[in-house]
Amino acid sequence: MQDSSLVKPADLRGILQYVPEFRDRVFVIAIDGAVVTDENFSNLLLDIAVLRSLNIRVVLVHGAGAQVRALAQERHITPSSVDGTGVTDQPTMEITLTAANRLTHEILEGLSMVDLRGAAVNAVVAHPLGIFHGIDHQYTGKIQRIDADFLQTLLQNNVVPILPPFGIDGAGRSYRLNSDDIAVETAEALKAVKLLFVTTKDGLFFHGQLLRQIMVNDLTRLLQEAPHGFHQDQLPKVKAAITACNAGVPRVHIINGCTNEALLAEVFSNEGIGTLVYANEYVQIRRAMKKDVRHILALIRQPVEAEELMPRTRAEIERTIDDYYIYEIDRNPVGCVALHIYPEEKKAELACLYVKPSHQNQGIGRKLAQFAETKAREAGAQVLFALSTQAYNFFQSKLGFIEGTPNDLPPARREKYESSGRKSKVLIKHLSK
After folding, report:
1. pTM score > 0.85 for this model?
2. In the chain, what percentage of residues exceed pLDDT 90?
3. Among 14, 203, 260, 392, which has the highest number of CB atoms less than 10 A from its own CB?
4. What domains sit in the chain, N to C, each tagged with a CATH number?
């Protein structure tokens, strides 16, 4: 574990900027059973203690699939359902109760070790799923409601509620439930600002590639058009994330709980380390303001040093700040573009296009370029041009530009081009009305 004495002031500032947004708000954290038995679980509990110290209210939901498998093997029983979505016969119900109760107690012990109060609660009201598609599901249940008032009372008294993968009906009968379903319903009932699935995987993978941030509409489209692109065991998390966002939970995260400090890295950094599924309002492109100058300079420092972008001074950016646009995620700039209009020549320059390395290969650059192109059309430009020393393949293959010559530049821009000595390729695109 990292020595807390080595925490950098910059790290603390990074955390503290989120505190006003999250203070007294609810995070629902759904932990896979396999994570609880991992050696990193004690570090995860420390992360939760940090959340609580910042007055973030936390509800824990846990599964027990790994423990059910282990106990079933120990007792030579073949479980009828491991995750609570299929039929739960009596032997499976018995080992699930035993495994889940042990797990709940381990979590309570762990919370005590980080000086947090926790309580296992019967806040999930359920009834039997019954006969579904002609099959009696026996002890498998269906969530009827979440007792949100009860949970809020505990949260207001600094208690961390723990929800095991069960629900209880009015007659005191217990039913096996899927922990993902409980987490989604709980997040919706409590109007949680975040639902975090803590798993043994780094996030959601599509055709083997980690999805870093994805809008719920795009994730839904992937699921509908190419469900086989997701690994079978990740489909429940995909569906749960979509359901939660559509139910009003603005942010759903899937992270690897076996990675040290994963929870804090995901919550308190713009990049995160896992997968973020977000509602549509999460991203916006907006016109830059004077306060954004420092963000723009920070964004372009690396590509300027690598001679990918032309150097710009603070004064130059401030003077033309109305030409700049910011791609923002949760009010954090991750990309920028500038559009300089030459009205007399009816031309416009797409300039200073850059996306942070942590957010590249997600289509952000293309979105910024398309946004600038639209603005150029609105301004009456008939030709859009760009200058590039290293990214010209992107402009040609992804954005439809063709190679031009310095003669295609407006006179003022050509003079600046020739004096720079950069010998950038001139790329042009004729704009339709």
Report:
1. no
2. 73
3. 203
4. 4-278 (3.40.1160.10), 284-430 (3.40.630.30)
